[in-house]
What we know:
The protein has about 180 residues and is α+β, with helices and mostly antiparallel strands. It is built from 4 helices and 4 strands, in the order H-H-E-E-E-E-H-H. Strands 1-4 form a two-stranded antiparallel ribbon. A two-stranded antiparallel ribbon has the order 2-3. Helix 2 runs antiparallel to helix 3 (about 100-145). The longest helix has about 45 residues, at about 100-145. The model has no long low-confidence stretch (mean pLDDT about 80).
Amino acid sequence: MSTHQKKSFRFQYIVDKEFQFKFLLHYSLLFISGVSVTLAFLYWLNQSKFDGGAVFRLRQDAQVVYWKVENEDAGPGEEKFKYVPRDIYLPNYDHQLSMYTIQFNAVVTLSALYLALITVFSIFKSHKMAGPVFSIKRSLQRMASGQPIEKIRVRKGDEFQELVELLNEVIQKRVAQDEQKKG
């Protein structure tokens, strides 16, 4: 294998598409099932415990109200109370939101983030499995077709290290047997 092929092979994370995408599908289905159960539970909780959990937005325009406060500066004969204007924001009942809608949006947003993280994780994790499987398949195909075979190489941290070591022993014995037959 040339230096260029080794370098490009290391950065190619989708090695065995069928295996890696099946791996990703299993993680994704598990995740989507969890999200569905979470949303169903939140819906049930809000409908049964909080009577629909009505939540309202505040209006954007302030309403002026007058607060009755004690007039500390009042002299004899003046009123002891005065009215001070204050702006308050009242609920806008035209734009009703339910607690479920708020929770649903939060769960969907977080779920999209988690799905992206699971996708990245599963591609990197499956690469540690698919790389050795790819190398093993290639060596076994060469062995079956009678081509010269080399020792199977895997990177540090890859899965199936013991299997690769065992297959390398088999390959080494086969190469030794072939050399004895020739010699």
